[in-house]
Structures are given as structure tokens and as C-alpha cells.
Write a structure and sequence with these properties.
The protein has 16 helices and no strands. It has about 400 residues and is mainly α.
């Protein structure tokens, strides 16, 4: 087996990263309940400004890494199935859970939000849910339209964008393949040194945000997400790149720590108390941001490839559990926090209970979901589970 074949058949590190990043999302969204001055569907009475630094740290690489992994997975998946089958499977496994989620999973979040703000009379959730399906009901006149009037994706926006990003990527890939430009786009990830690649990625993303999607402009989050999806697709299974990431993981960790110290110092001393940076100052700000962002991503990928690229008896179970956990977790978080607020448990006990109970309820939900063919379809899981042989080495890749 050559190096490329080994990389193609044993990418357990990406499965582990997918599990860990989605698990971290639960902690992040619990943090949104308690971080001061940041908007959320529901806020606890126990809020802390000190949480802002930790949340900013996670914000730098959490979503970019997730889209990057998704881009890598698309390239792996296209190596196994036809383009038409890929689009069909991607549509089924993303749009069915999305539509189910916005009509069944997400509404309790809106109920809690409206009750907490005093925008609802004292009605039961059943009464609210009946009104929810009336798209012109006066209860919701102050709530903006999402997909439909007052009906939005909330935390499930990632599922929606992943489908659109996948289609955009496939269109670009087809066009660039026809004009034979793809080898030139793969070449930097295949041939360049990791240091040169790192510098170029930082410069490219900084200039893109300066010139194409400046901070605060509409679509910035989408543009950044799609960019990292594309970088992941180009990174794919380039053996030399992954070896360099593993070899230089400590260097990138050091860069990440130092750049984050610079970034968080700038945030507290200047960003929160001054006018937004413009021109050259904004470019310098973006250079710091993307140096920190790419350094953390490279360090995490390097450490994962070095330490986690091996199977485990729990991995298949955890990898399948990720999607249902993701769909369910924010609703559990918000409802639990709202219910527990009546008991005035304090700023330590309450968040601990929210975290523990969210994991328990997600785990219970997954155990129910995985045993039902209908629920498996609604939560984006394969309905048929083929029996794996001991000789099979290829893990299920992340979505």
C-alpha cells in the first residue's frame, strides 16, 4: 500500500475531530447563556464578562475547522461515489433533517425566547405550537421572517449552508476541471512547504475579507464558511501536507498561543472601546485574526493526525451520534436553562446541570433515534446499517 492509499483508507483522525468539535459545540452554546453582552435566544441571570475571552478563543477556529473537515470529506466521498449519487445523498441527509428540525425541534427555542421577553401570554407550549403554524398569527408580529414568517433555522443554519456550499463547490469543481485548472489549485497543498502555505493562506484570507467580504457586511459568515470548505477540499488527502502538519504541530501551537495573546489583548484594550478599524489598520487586524485562526487549525489537524489516526471501538457509535446530538442539543440547552432558572441555583450549579442534562438527554434521544428507521431518516442517519468486517479499514467519513 503506497502513502496516498494509506491516507485514503485510514482517516480516523477526521472522524475523531468531527466528534470532538461537535461535542465542543454543546459547551459553546451553554456558554452563550452566560457570556455577558452577547445576544442569544435566551440569557441566564448569571452572566460573566470573563467568559468573553474563552468564547472568542473558540470562535477563532471552531466553525472554520468544521467547514474545513466537511470540505475534506467531500473530496473523499467523491472518490467513492458518482456526482449524481453524491448530490442525492447530500440532499436527503441534509434537507430532511433541516425541514424536520425547523418545524419540530426548533420551536421550543422560540417559545422560551418569547416567554422570557414577555411577548407571549401565559399559554401552554401546546397552544403556542398550534399558533406557530399560523404564519400570520399576531403573537409573532415583532419576530422577523426566516425561512417563513417567524420560522427560522436557528442553530441548524449549518445544515442549510452545508448543502448550498456543497452545490457551489461541485459547480466550481466541474467548471475548473473542464478548463483543467484543478491540478494548479491542488499543487500548493501538494508541493509547497507548510510554512509558505501557512503564510499564503493568512494573506489570502486577510485580503479577501478586506476587499470582498468586510467585517459586518451581509454574508460574511457564509463567505468565510465556504472559503474554508474549499480549502478543505483542496487539502484532501495530500500526503505531504498531512505529514508536515504532524511534524510541525508544536510550531503551529506556539504561533497559535502567541497570536491569541496578541489578539485578545487588542480586543480588550482597543476593539471594544474604539471605532472599527479601517484601511491599513483593518488589514493588520485581519492578519492577526487569520494568523491565529490558521495556526490553531494547523496545530489541531497536526496533533489529531499524529495521535488520533487510529480506530477505536467507540468511534463508529460516536460518529453516528454526532448528527442527532447536533440537531437536538440547543433546544435542550435553552429549555433546561429556562426551567432551572426558577430554582435560583447560582452561577456554578446551574451551568453544570445544563451541561450534564443536555448530554444525557441527547444520549437518550440518540438511543431512541437509532432504533427507528423513520427517526433515522428524519435525523439524517443511514437507514440500513451494513455489517462491517474486521478487515474493513475505511471509516465512515464526516458529513
Amino acid at each position: 500500500m503506497n502513502n496516498e492509499q494509506a491516507l485514503l483508507t485510514r482517516r480516523y483522525d477526521l472522524d475523531w475531530l468531527r466528534v470532538l468539535v461537535f461535542g465542543l459545540l454543546i459547551f459553546y452554546h451553554v456558554g452563550m447563556l452566560y457570556v455577558a453582552d452577547w445576544g442569544y435566544h435566551y440569557k441566564s441571570n448569571y452572566q460573566s464578562e470573563s467568559l468573553q475571552s474563552l468564547m472568542i478563543f473558540l470562535n477563532q477556529w471552531r466553525l472554520p475547522l468544521l467547514f474545513l473537515i466537511s470540505g475534506i470529506a467531500i473530496r473523499f466521498f467523491l472518490n467513492k461515489v458518482s456526482l449524481v449519487r453524491f448530490i442525492g445523498l447530500r440532499t436527503l441527509r441534509l434537507w430532511v433533517p433541516l425541514l424536520f428540525g425547523i418545524w419540530v425541534v426548533v420551536p421550543p427555542q422560540l417559545y422560551v425566547e418569547m416567554m422570557a421577553k414577555g411577548d407571549l401570554p401565559a399559554i401552554s407550549y401546546h397552544e403556542f405550537y398550534l399558533a406557530f403554524f399560523d404564519l400570520s398569527h399576531p403573537y409573532f408580529e415583532n419576530y422577523p421572517s426566516g425561512i417563513f414568517p417567524h420560522v427560522d433555522v436557528n442553530h441548524l443554519w449549518y445544515i442549510r449552508e452545508l448543502w448550498y456550499f456543497s452545490i457551489y463547490l461541485l459547480l466550481a469543481y466541474g467548471l475548473l476541471s473542464v478548463v483543467r485548472l484543478m491540478p494548479y489549485l491542488y499543487a500548493p497543498f501538494r508541493n509547497w512547504s507548510i510554512t509558505v502555505l501557512f503564510v499564503v493562506l493568512v494573506l489570502v484570507m486577510s485580503l479577501l475579507q478586506l476587499l470582498v467580504f468586510p467585517e459586518g457586511s451581509e454574508g460574511t459568515r457564509k463567505a468565510l464558511g465556504f472559503s474554508f470548505l474549499c480549502w478543505g477540499f483542496l487539502m484532501g488527502w495530500e500526503y505531504n501536507l498531512w505529514q508536515q502538519l504532524s511534524q510541525h504541530r508544536r510550531r503551529f501551537l506556539a504561533i497559535a498561543v502567541v497570536s491569541f495573546m496578541v489578539l485578545i489583548t487588542y480586543y480588550h484594550l482597543y476593539y471594544t472601546s474604539s471605532e472599527p478599524a479601517q484601511g491599513l489598520a483593518y488589514l493588520l487586524e485581519r492578519l492577526v485574526v487569520f494568523t491565529n485562526r490558521w495556526a490553531w487549525i494547523f496545530a489541531i489537524l497536526g496533533y489529531a493526525h499524529h495521535h488520533l489516526n487510529r480506530p477505536h471501538r467507540w468511534l463508529r457509535y460516536l460518529n453516528e451520534a454526532v448528527y442527532p446530538y447536533y440537531i437536538l442539543h440547543q433546544t435542550f440547552i435553552i429549555v433546561l436553562a429556562y426551567v432551572l432558572s426558577a430554582y435560583q441555583l447560582g452561577p456554578i450549579i446551574e451551568p453544570i446541570l445544563v451541561i450534564v442534562l443536555t448530554f444525557l438527554l441527547c444520549g437518550l434521544g440518540f438511543e431512541i433515534i437509532r432504533r427507528s428507521a423513520v427517526l433515522r431518516l428524519l435525523f439524517g442517519l443511514k437507514i440500513e446499517q451494513p455489517i462491517k468486517t474486521k478487515k474493513e479499514l475505511t471509516p465512515k467519513m464526516p458529513n
